[in-house]
Amino acid sequence: MHLAMNMVVLYQFGSILERFLGGIKFILIYLLGGIITNLLSLVYIWYNGYYNGIDINTIGASGAICVLLGFMAFIDRYNAKGLFIALILMSFAPLLMGINVAWYAHLLGFGIGYLSGKIVRKY
User: Fold this and answer.
1) What CA–CA distances, in Å, run from 83 to 15, 53, 57, 110?
2) Nearest alpha carbon to residue 67 among 88, 37, 24, 91
3) In the chain, what's the furthest Cα-to-Cα distance?
4) 112 secondary structure, DSSP code
5) 3-state helix, strand, coil in the chain (%, to 5)
6) Any transmembrane segments, and where (predicted)?
7) CA 68, CA 62: separation in Å to the nearest integer?
8) Which among 80, 75, 90 is positioned nearest to 18, based on CA atoms?
9) Domain residues of the chain, as ranges?
10) 121/102 Cα distance (integer angstroms)
């Protein structure tokens, strides 16, 4: 289910951003943002002591997709608040149902995407 939701969101926002940015910028933001998000997630886990010899899965597309959401929030200020609320719901609603979600990757990805928008705007 998680993978299906990721792919739906990627299709919805990815197609819009790919037309806006062009293919090369889009893939660079998606891949680099995803890598940075996953690395920062690992730092967060290590710093907070969550890894105590147990397996924690943090690698996935959610962080990269949230990068796209953050980027979209930067370029579409009218809908930015709604995108942030959607991010919060995506990140924390599963936790209420007992589903383990890397909420920190979602939030980090959104922030990285927003900052990416500021950087890309300059170029």
Assistant:
1) 16, 35, 25, 9
2) 37
3) 44
4) H
5) 80, 0, 20
6) 27-47, 59-75, 82-105
7) 10
8) 75
9) 15-121
10) 29
At position 62, the amino acid (one-letter code) is S
Q: State which amino acid sits at residue 118.
A: K
pLDDT above 70: residue 18: yes
* Tokens at 95, concatenated: 């936790």
Go through 9-44 and write b for each residue having 16 or more CB atoms within 10 A of its CB, e for each that does not: bbeebbeebbeebeeeebeebbeebbebbbebbeeb
42-89 confidence digits (pLDDT tens): 888 888 776 666 666 666 788 999 999 999 999 888 887 888 888 788
DSSP state of 78: G
CB 50, CB 100: distance < 8 Å? no
State both tokens at 40: 């920062």
Tokens of 75: 């370029």
* pTM as predicted: 0.84
CA distance to 20, 22, 41, 59, 119, per residue, from 16 (Å): 6, 10, 27, 25, 19
